[in-house]
Amino acid sequence: MATYTWDHIHLRTTNPEAMAQWFEKMLGAEVLRSMQEGKPRIDLRLGGANIFIAPVAEGDGTNAAPKIPYRGLDHFGLSVSGIDAIAADLKKKGVEFTREPTTVRPGVRVCFIRAPEGVSIELLDRNVK
Questions:
Q1: Rounded distance, CA 40 to CA 53, Å?
Q2: What is the rounded end-to-end Cα distance, in angstroms, of the chain?
Q3: Which of 7, 27, 40, 106 is deepest in the core (most CB within 10 A)?
């Protein structure tokens, strides 16, 4: 059987710079700028994962972001420690919460935040005492 490992998440947006700045400011992502085929490219590194940001132009056939919840890829999750303090810090920064920190089972608290373009991110703390 083949072995699979994660490589990247790909986000499409009408404003790549604003998307990158949000992830940098709110979640501490590392922003990597380069050129690809003569055009600017923005990638992020967050929690050991690659996030590629692709520009979307009006009329290029890209559909609008769906409203959550929806079928297909719904969100991605980031593991954290100390979720309540992290949530309080994100609220001070103006991050929109779609679900406040909640204990979903013993030892696990989660919350959901919304990034630009409707991207849904779950924060999970699996070390709650």
A1: 11
A2: 38
A3: 27
pLDDT, position 64: 85
pTM over 0.85: yes
Burial category of 122 from C-beta neighbours within 10 Å (exposed 0-12, middle 13-18, buried 19 and up) = middle
pLDDT tens digits for 12-22?
999 999 999 99
Q: Does domain 65-129 have CATH number 3.40.50.300?
A: no
AA letter at 81 = S
Statement: residue 4 has pLDDT above 80? no
For tokens 């922003």, what's the residue? 31
Q: Is 127 helix (H, G, I), strand (E, B) or coil?
A: coil
